[in-house]
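Cross-check.
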Amino acid sequence: MDFHSDALKILKETSRTFYIPISRLPSDLQAAVASAYLCMRAIDEVEDSDILDTKSKSQLLRAMSLQLQSQDYETEKDHFNAIFQPYQDLLPEVSLRLSDWSLLADKTIAPRIWDATAAMADRMAYWAEVNWQIDTKQDLDRYTFSVAGAVGLLLSDLWSWDDGTTTDRHLAIGFGRGLQAVNILRNQKDDLKRGVSFFPEGWQSADMYQYARYQLKLGQLYTDSLSPGPALNFCRIPLALALGTLEAMSLGKEKLTRSDVLSLVENLIKIKTA
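Predicted model, tokenized:
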């Protein structure tokens, strides 16, 4: 199996939502978006680990950030080994192979992905150090920007790099925040079990639903502003799945069923080819 196919295999194992739109992108853009997703999934698995303590998470995330900041596309790809050596049995493959994912994109865009991932790792380390304490809406905005809004900005850079597509970056942040807000609602029970709540003080589920709907409205405007092409084909799928998940949860379901996901995606693909 070639390295590109291997990356897609790991992507499929880690995200049903993002595998579909990434797998449909043109080759060079596919490699760049897959690199970005897998790099960020690598650090996300550290932040969400049920095994690592908070201090270990913070130290590891900052070490990963520093290594990415010293990254060189021409050097050997095993320079993360020393960082991960103590954690070989504690982290999933997607995290341990961060070096591979960082070198997947073309060298003309890879440094932007390193920069975004390094910055996100530092922000995640901060949130681990404060035990993900969310007291106000401003705190929630900071967190959702840290782990998702910034992803919207990176995607905008990738669209521009690929074919010159220009976007409204304020709306790009909303696109990312909206997807994250849906994740917060979906994972609320599991988060509470580990002693973490992303709900600002005094907020109920209705408040978070309102927040998610507002951010997804921005995400819809972001998507609607895109011209026909790879960026639009990509964005409409996670947005539709997020909107569908939010609607399903508002009706008392935990999430979309696999058949729901496949039906939504199939309909979007039909729209594209119509």
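Residues 1-114 form one domain. The chain is about 70% helix and 0% strand. Passed to J.P. for a second look.
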